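Tokens as discussed.
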């Protein structure tokens, strides 16, 4: 039987095992491997698992260690899923991109102008996803230099927070952690707002066209990733039901 896991530190509160169980009715094993050392976590993966999800703080280290990378992983500079082939090779993917694309498309709304708030790993995935959705992308962040560095990397525009009020995006992807203050002046009113944070969301209830919480991002990331793991379509209905019960 195939065996999968999540590596990271910490991972003890992760929903992933229960979401994976919902996806396949418990037909596959899924463990949490909490290790302070990436090397130890990677050793445990190679010794006993067919695939792993990767969370903080190991995504960049997994990116560097994988034998080959998907196009999305290469663009994002981070890996959140690794498969081990029968020959022992490791294949790195980034399904955060799929999470954003799926969450937006599930709303049935067309988008063309995206504002990405933040400049970390989730923002990178959001930029790649917005490009796949056909959007013109602008990045903003509390530290402008970080937004500019990201914009230069992806060939899009960066704006300081005090200037974003002149934009009229139809998609805002908010990637700041729930503990961070929400910047003033974000042009929410006509936008589909997708928030990465799902345990402590900052924007639930914000006046906007449509609000999509981080659990939808998690759902569609899981749909893509679990399909890569098993080669089988996961049960989206059961996954959705499990996530609804968490709200």
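Sequence:
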């Amino acid at each position: 039987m195939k065996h999968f896991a999540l590596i990271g530190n910490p991972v003890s509160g992760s929903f992933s095992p229960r979401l994976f169980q919902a996806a396949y009715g418990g037909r596959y094993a899924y463990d949490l491997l909490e290790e302070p050392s990436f090397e130890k976590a990677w050793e445990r993966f190679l010794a006993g698992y067919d695939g792993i999800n990767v969370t903080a703080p190991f995504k960049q280290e997994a990116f560097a260690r994988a034998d080959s990378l998907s196009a999305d992983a290469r663009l994002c500079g981070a890996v959140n899923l690794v498969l081990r082939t029968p020959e022992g090779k490791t294949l790195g993917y980034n399904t955060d991109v799929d999470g954003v694309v799926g969450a937006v498309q599930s709303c049935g709304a067309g988008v063309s102008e995206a504002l990405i708030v933040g400049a970390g790993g989730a923002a990178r995935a959001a930029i790649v996803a917005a490009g796949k959705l056909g959007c013109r992308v602008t990045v903003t962040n509390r530290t402008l230099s970080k937004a500019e560095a990201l914009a230069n990397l992806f060939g899009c525009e960066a704006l300081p927070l005090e200037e974003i009020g002149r934009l009229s995006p139809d998609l805002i992807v908010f990637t700041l952690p729930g503990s961070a203050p929400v910047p003033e002046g974000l042009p929410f009113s006509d936008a589909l707002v997708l928030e990465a944070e799902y345990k402590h969301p900052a924007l639930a209830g914000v006046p906007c066209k449509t609000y999509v919480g981080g659990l939808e991002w998690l759902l569609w990331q899981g749909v893509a990733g679990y399909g890569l793991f098993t080669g089988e379509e996961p049960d989206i209905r059961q996954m959705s039901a499990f996530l609804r019960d968490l709200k």
